[in-house]
Design goal:
With 236 residues, this protein is α+β, with helices and mostly antiparallel strands. It has two helices and 19 strands. The chain has helices at 4-27, 198-235, and strands at 37-45, 60-69, 76-78, 85-88, 92-95, 99-101, 107-108, 114-115, 123-124, 127-128, 136-138, 143-146, 149-153, 156-158, 165-169, 172-175, 180-181, 185-188, 190-192. Strands 15-16-6-5-14-17 form a six-stranded antiparallel beta sheet, with no helix packed on it. It starts with a helix and ends with a helix. Residues 48-58 have low confidence and may be disordered.
Length: 236
Amino acid sequence: MYKGIYLALSGAVLKERQLEVISQNLSNANTNGYKKDKIAFRDYLIQQHNGLNEDQQGKSMADMAEVITDYTPGAFKQTGNNLDIAIDGSGFIQLEHDQYSRRGDLKLDSEGYLTTNSGARVQGAKGDIKLSGSNVQITGNGEVFVDGGATDKINIVDFENPKTIRKVGEGIFVSDEPGIPSKSIVQQGFLETSNVSAIKEMVTMISSMREFESFQKTIQAFDEAASHGINEVGRL
């Protein structure tokens, strides 16, 4: 087997994974509070791995180190809805079951509890936040007033180590460490948009597709060369 096919194969696999991540980002370009992902790559020498002959050693292969979430804030858009909030700064809205979210298009469920768009209950100083009234006001530090009376305070938390945070879908995050109070400002009547730039993602996708196709052609060339060599040996 030609040593180059290993290099081309590793590149093709990585580009395929990168295209999957880009597609996921593009599909959420209009999702409130969405944070885009990107792939971190690493290179290593083939000679560090057992089972390869000398002809395959000393070459660099690529591997996916990890998928990293970019927490850069998205732009704010004004909605005028009193249940819409955006976090101006780092931090997350604390939800039930030790879940967190940046998506602030909140609503009231059938029982009057304040929830995310997906139905997870928002947590306050008293636990699940339940509202009864019509005029809801949310201050910069997350305090909730209904018809002029103090009701609760939305827990906005942050994490010392962002690497402990991971996505679980529907704009929800979880962490292996407890959140700490955030000093960020809550903006009522606004929503944070996705931090995905559709144009930049499309440019990256086109480039990645071209690279993937190049790796495919290289693999095919090696395969044809190997088949040709086997056929020539068979004629001897």
